[in-house]
């Protein structure tokens, strides 16, 4: 059979003549793109100038950094006594992250229902609780740690409270969003059988949101194990205190040892929580960030 | 036509009910073991973290009175009054603080931009569908993991020794951390694209860079932008504490005010930071929704 190529290759000039608007370069679109890029690049340059970046400073800094990295090899805690201190501090960090995350989840759980549009008591309370949660989230964990140190003194307890407080803000928001996204049909079903408001929440909404919430809590445990390493820098317990100390006293081999310890800890927690998460909510629902 | 359902006989009903109760009991036992395990772990970590509830209860007044104190002037002619009675005195350093705040946002911006550029350049090599070489792919993945696991403050502490005090180590610390976090997300976005257009451009003889430009980029760009915006908000918040270790921005003034008990300054600075972060939060959320709806347009 003979197939003519004329039939399947488009006749470009004819097409161009018939649909000129699809072939013309869209000036508007291009101008918007170029404008955006120009503004972003301008800000970029402004930032470099304003924050005092200079070529020499960056070059010499990178040179210095290279020396530091060389000084870090091989990783070495220094002595066995130090090694055990570091291990204890690491355990403290894990404990801070675990307890902080769990307590935050326990507090945020009822708050999430109050802050969700479909389960709240009234519109005003819902709005107010959302704004309070925003305010809590606006303050960094390190700042909360400083505030809590004023209350319970230096030590890991302040770290637990700091992680708890800052996570209440995040959890409250995430939980309420999960509750708002819950399917209405099962709630209506419970209502049609004569269930009260509490029944609707318990049997209609809770089974839907529980896996989502559990996944988020696990995810934040992971991320708090990371941020738990830094609250020690302001004196709120954990491995951060030692890390900052070793950096300030220029004990580079101990620094790299500590960094490796942290990497191992985070990898271990990651592995456990990925398993738990897939067990609880299946492979499909991994939280976004 | 009969519409009534035949009722089960009582003995059949009893077996069904029994099976139901057994199933519920097994489930309940599982949940109870789980709860018990979690409580045991909580007690253990409470012991490790030196949780002292009596101290918390005894001093919990301090927490609330702290907010009371930062809302009150403690010196000068207005001592003892609430801060909002005299905004000019409360925000006495507004000009200086606004400049510092702008610096903080710039640190966040530069860190986000540099990190996003790095993540963009590397993410295609970390995606399983575009990079067949497992060594290179896993290498890049491990690099991302390292960058996002080490906290930015730790990078900042190290960079301060290399680059000297000031915003430069702050920017680089945020950039490296951002590269790790965004690199992972970007690579996941790339792994989820529709491969048909990639096959199409490969079939026309396109090389790696051309495939990325014409087959991958159009599919992923709006997601990339959305993640970057989200990260920008996180980074501005992170930049606000960079000053705690001397890496520039408003954190320096904040930690000084907290440590030296300049109560009114603490509340003023916190308010400024919260306001800035909220404004950026709302702004980026709008932009992100616009981007996402653009992508979902047919």
From TrEMBL, chain A:
It comes from the Bacteria. Keywords: Membrane, Transmembrane, Transmembrane helix, Transport. It is a multi-pass membrane protein. It is found in: Cell membrane. The chain crosses the membrane at residues 31-51, 94-116, 141-164, 201-221, 228-244, 250-273. Its main location: membrane. InterPro entries: MetI-like (IPR000515), MetI-like_sf (IPR035906), PhnE/PtxC (IPR005769). Pfam families: BPD_transp_1. Signal peptide: none annotated. GO terms for molecular function: ABC-type phosphonate transporter activity. SUPFAM superfamilies: MetI-like. The keyword Magnesium does not apply. GO terms for cellular component: plasma membrane. Residues 90-273 form the ABC transmembrane type-1 domain. Belongs to the binding-protein-dependent transport system permease family. This is Phosphonate transport system permease protein. It comes from Microvirga guangxiensis.
TrEMBL record, chain B:
It is found in: Cell membrane. The lineage of its organism: Bacteria, Pseudomonadati, Pseudomonadota, Alphaproteobacteria, Hyphomicrobiales. GO terms for molecular function: ABC-type phosphonate transporter activity. It comes from Microvirga guangxiensis. Belongs to the binding-protein-dependent transport system permease family. It is a multi-pass membrane protein. The chain crosses the membrane at residues 31-49, 106-132, 153-176, 261-284. Residues 101-281 form the ABC transmembrane type-1 domain. CDD domains: TM_PBP2. This is Phosphonate transport system permease protein. Keywords: Cell membrane, Membrane, Transmembrane, Transmembrane helix, Transport. Its main location: membrane. One of its GO terms (cellular component) is plasma membrane. It comes from the Bacteria. It holds the Pfam family BPD_transp_1.
């Amino acid at each position: 059979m003979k197939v003519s190529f004329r039939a399947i290759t488009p006749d470009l000039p004819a097409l161009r003549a018939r649909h000129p608007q699809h072939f013309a370069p869209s000036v508007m679109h291009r101008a918007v793109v170029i404008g955006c890029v120009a503004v972003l690049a301008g800000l970029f340059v402004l930032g470099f100038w304003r924050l005092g970046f200079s070529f020499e400073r960056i070059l010499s800094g990178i040179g210095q950094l290279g020396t530091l990295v060389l000084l870090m090899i091989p990783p070495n805690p220094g002595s066995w006594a130090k090694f055990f201190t570091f291990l204890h501090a690491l355990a403290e960090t894990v404990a801070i992250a675990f307890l902080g995350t769990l307590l935050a989840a326990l507090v945020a759980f009822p708050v999430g229902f109050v802050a969700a549009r479909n389960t709240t008591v009234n519109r005003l309370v819902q709005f107010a609780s959302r704004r309070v949660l925003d305010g809590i989230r606006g303050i960094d964990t390190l700042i909360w740690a400083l505030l809590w140190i004023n209350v319970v003194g230096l030590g890991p307890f302040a770290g637990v409270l700091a992680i708890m407080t800052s996570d209440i803000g995040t959890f409250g928001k995430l939980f309420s969003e999960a509750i708002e996204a819950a399917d209405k049909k099962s709630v209506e079903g419970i209502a049609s059988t004569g269930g009260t408001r509490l029944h609707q929440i318990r049997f209609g909404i809770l089974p839907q949101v529980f896996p989502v919430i559990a996944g988020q809590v696990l995810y934040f445990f992971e991320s708090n194990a990371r941020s738990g390493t830094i609250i020690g820098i302001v004196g709120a317990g954990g491995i951060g205190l030692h890390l900052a100390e070793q950096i300030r006293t220029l004990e580079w081999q101990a620094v790299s040892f500590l960094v490796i310890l942290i990497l191992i800890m985070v990898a271990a927690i990651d592995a456990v929580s990925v398993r738990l998460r897939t067990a609880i909510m299946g492979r499909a629902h991994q939280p976004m960030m | 036509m009969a519409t009534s359902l035949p009722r089960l006989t009582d003995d059949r009903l009893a077996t069904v009910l029994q099976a139901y109760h057994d199933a519920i009991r097994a489930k309940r036992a599982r949940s109870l073991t789980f709860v018990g395990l979690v409580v045991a772990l909580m007690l253990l970590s409470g012991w490790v973290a030196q949780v002292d509830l009596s101290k918390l209860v005894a001093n919990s007044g301090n927490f609330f009175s702290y907010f009371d104190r930062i809302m009150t002037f403690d010196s000068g002619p207005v001592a003892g009054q609430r801060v909002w009675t005299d905004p000019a005195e409360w925000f006495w350093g507004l000009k200086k603080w606004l400049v510092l705040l702008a610096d903080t946002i710039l640190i966040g911006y530069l860190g986000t931009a540099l990190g996003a550029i790095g993540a963009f350049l590397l993410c295609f090599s970390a995606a399983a569908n575009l990079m067949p070489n497992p060594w290179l792919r896993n290498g890049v993945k491990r690099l991302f993991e390292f960058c996002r696991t080490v906290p930015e403050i730790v990078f900042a502490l190290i960079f301060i020794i290399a680059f000297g005090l000031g915003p430069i180590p702050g920017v680089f610390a945020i950039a490296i951390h951002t590269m790790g976090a965004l690199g992972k997300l970007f690579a996941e976005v790339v792994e989820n694209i529709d491969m048909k257009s990639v096959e199409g451009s490969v079939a026309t003889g396109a090389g790696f860079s051309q495939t990325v430009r014409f087959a991958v980029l159009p599919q992923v760009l709006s997601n990339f932008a959305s993640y970057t915006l989200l990260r920008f908000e996180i980074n501005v918040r992170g930049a606000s504490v960079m000053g705690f270790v001397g890496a520039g921005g408003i954190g320096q003034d904040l930690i000084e005010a907290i440590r030296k008990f300049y109560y009114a300054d603490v509340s003023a600075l916190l308010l400024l930071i919260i306001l800035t972060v909220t404004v950026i939060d709302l702004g980026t959320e709008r932009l992100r929704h616009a981007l996402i709806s653009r992508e979902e347009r047919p």
